[in-house]
Every structure is written in C-alpha cells, then in structure tokens.
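COMPLEX REQUEST
Ligand: iron/sulfur cluster
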Amino acid sequence: MIPQEEIRRQAEIASSLRGRLAGKKALVRTFGCQQNEADGERIAGALDACGYTLTETLSEADLVILNTCAVREHAEKRVLGVIGSLKKEKERRPSLLLGMCGCMAQEAHRREQLKRSYPYVDFVFGTDLLHKVPEIVANALAGGGQKQYVNDLPHDQFGELSEGTPVKRTSPYRALVSIMYGCDNFCSYCIVPYVRGRERSRPSDAVLREVRELAESGCRDIQLLGQNVNSYRGELSFPALLERASQIDGDFWMRFMTSHPKDASDELIAVMARNQKIAKHFHLPFQSGSDRVLAEMNRRYTRAQYLEKALKIRDAMPDVSLTSDVIIGFPTETEAEFLETVELVRQVEFDMLFTFLFSPRAGTRAAKMDGQIPHEEQVKRFEYLSAVQNEVAQKRNDRYVGKTLRVLSDGTDENGIPTGRCGQNKIVTFDRPVPAGRFCEVKIQSSRQYALSGTVV
Ligand code: SAM
Ligand code: SF4
Ligand code: F3S
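STATUS: Structure written out below.
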C-alpha cells in the first residue's frame, strides 16, 4: 500500500500547480476495459486537482493522456495510430503535452518503440503509478524530453495499491469501483497478468465507504470491478462484500465484473439471488467449449463444470441475463473443437456474447504455440458463431415481450430516442423522455437481438 505521506505529497504537488494550470485543458482518452476506464477516472481526478479543466476536444487540449490497452493487437494498433496522428498536432502546438499510460506502457518493447519512434511523447507511466500523476505532470512541464516511469520489479512481484487519490467520474449515476487490481490466473493467451501485476485487493471498508458515498450522492448503478472478483481477498470474501454493499441505504443497483468460472461459488449465486439490489446480470466468460482447448488455455475448468455453473445461475435466478466471452481460433483449435464451442453457445443460450479472434500477445505461452490458425479461418469461424449467437439473442430477448422491466434512463441516444438499460444490462428504448439517471418502468412491446423497446408505464 502506498503510504499516505506519499499520497499527501502528490496532493501538495497538485495544489502547487493549480495557479499555473488554471484555464488549461486536459483530455484523457481510454482505450481498454472497465478497469482501464476506472483508472482513467482517477487520472482525470489527479489532473483536476492539478488545476486542469477536462475536455473531450483535442484541438483545445493542453495535455493529452492516452490510457491504453494491450489485450489484442487491434487495441494496440489503434493507440499507435492515434499517437502517430498527434505528431502533427504537437508540431503545430509545441506546448501541447502528450502522455501515455495503461497496459501498453507496461510492455518493455512498447516503451522502447515509444522512445525510438515517438520521442515527442513527453511521458509514459505504468499501471500502478496512477497516484504519481501530479509529479509526472510537474516534471513534464519542466521539459527535457520523454520520461518513462514504470515499476521495474519482475512480473511476479509488482503491483501497488493506493487509497485516497481523487476521482473524477464520467457519469453522475453510473459508477465503476475497482475492488482489486492485477491477475494471478495466467491464462495462456492473456497479457493482463504481465501488464497489471499480481492480484491485490483493496480493504473491504474502503470499498464499502466508496459505495456508501456513491449511494449518498445519488448514484444508481454501481459496479464492483476486478479481473476475477471471486479471488478478492479483503477482510470480507467477495460474496460478503457484495452483500454488504447491496445493503447500503439508497435506491441503486449493484453489479460486478468479472467472475472466473472456476471460482464463481454457490455462495455468490445465493447472495445474488436473495438481494434485490444486485442486478440480475452475470458475466461468466467461458472462452472455449472444448476441454482440450480449455486445458491449453490454462482455464482450470471443464466444459461440464462450466455448464453446471451456468445452469445453477439460471436455476437460482430465472430472470438473469448470462453473458460471456469466447476466443475463436486459439492455436491448434480444430474445426470439431470450434463446433463444440458453437454447441455450448446453443446449449447455454447466452444473452450476449463477446467474441474475439485469438490475437498472439508477446510473452504469453499461446503466442509461441505451434498451430496458429490463419486469419481467414478465424474470420470464417467468427462469422459462423456470430450468426448462431444472433439467433440465440433474439430468442432470449423475445421472452421479455409483454413484461415490465425496471430501467435506468440514459436520456436520449444520438438519434433522440429515449434509452436506458435494465437490470439485465440490456439496452431498452422507450416512448417518452425520462431524465438521465432516473429509474422508470417500461412495458416491453418488441425485441431485437441486442435491444428491447417499450412504453413507460
Ligand atoms: N479477467 C476476465 C476473465 O478472465 O474473464 C477477462 C479479462 S480480458 C480483459 C477480456 C477478454 O478478452 C477475455 O475474456 C478474453 O476473451 C479476451 N482476450 C484476452 N486475451 C486475448 C487474446 N490474446 N486474444 C483474443 N482475446 C483475448
Ligand atoms: Fe486474463 Fe485469465 Fe486473468 Fe482474465 S483471468 S485477466 S483472461 S489471465
Ligand atoms: Fe486491456 Fe489492460 Fe483491460 S490489457 S482489457 S486495459 S486490463
């Protein structure tokens, strides 16, 4: 845990910058998962404390920080494209400060590349140095070329935890609360354990305090985050923490993300089923329907064990929505093994499936495996599975027609249509505007694959 003295020292640096940075604007762009978004809100909080006003407009920003993701090649390419395009902006406005952080910053080969090919980036910092943002910004204002800040500890050690740093949230009514950082699972395809370090949990009372403050401020949807929330090790177990959080006064939904199937316990399912305030959405990634592929992935459960868990969840909560992640074209995956995945999708009937083409990540075991599947074959399998999932999703959503759902309004979408999400985390559109951040009851009249629509009752 970072000592509070250090947190105070950073706060002092921030306040010493306030006069100088008044009127300056900062943009934080996040490319990754919700954990990354939550980090982005802490970076924004630190910049706000330094005196920056946050903006979404590049041309008016005096500081731009790219908060990156390394989970697939596509995510990294997007970031490199944006960094490349910022070169012109930097030439036009040399006083513009550019920073890069997040999971890519944690990769040694990327840091080398940034030094070599993108020297105009002023600073780079790793995933566990968020508390140092004021100092990093102060150093950048002093100039002197690209500086890189990364904890150099080996990957089996690094990982710090800090409490008491400011947060600037994107939404007043939907909030992300990280309860733990890092991952110890080392699934053979995944870069996360290397870029996020070892699992470490926030103290339970700190998490509960944050949830209480959010509930008191009128937040309506609070999501507890971790790469594998089931291995949360605070004073409380994860199910106990979730239950205590959901018992805090206030009208809000509690959610969580992500559960690893090997650890999602009966206790968790029971806590969820008996607490009304816990939204009935369970994200349970299965990754593959083949036992051989699951073993190669180091997932540590079998297809049968996954199915048993999924069915238990549906049994305990008939109105639950079950969503999942799957990887297509893992090295050595045969056509027959892919069809086992398709079969599992038909069997479970997921409400929503996030389907990813396997992307080799430098340093992971799967990247070095023989039997990499050609891209065209991956795409073919992807399209086949997507068509099956579209059918399944339509069937799942048809069940809601005629039912009345509680929906948290998000105001109107880009076409002016009133929209929100129900507890099952499905998009629901409705007939008349309801202010964003308010709950309403919507009677569902029709369904599409990935949205429901109805009338406010
Ligand atoms: N910790 C979560 C879990 O285990 O379910 C998932 C975190 S990961 C950020 C989100 C998803 O990205 C994974 O569930 C997996 O499907 C996908 N993913 C991770 N590494 C990948 C890779 N190398 N290629 C393709 N997809 C990948
Ligand atoms: Fe990656 Fe596996 Fe950890 Fe999830 S549990 S973050 S997929 S290593
Ligand atoms: Fe990406 Fe890092 Fe999240 S690699 S998916 S931003 S933990």
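REMARKS: The chain has 14 helices and 19 strands. Residues 183, 185-187, 190, 192-193, 227-228, 260 surround iron/sulfur cluster (ligand 2) (CB under 6 Å).
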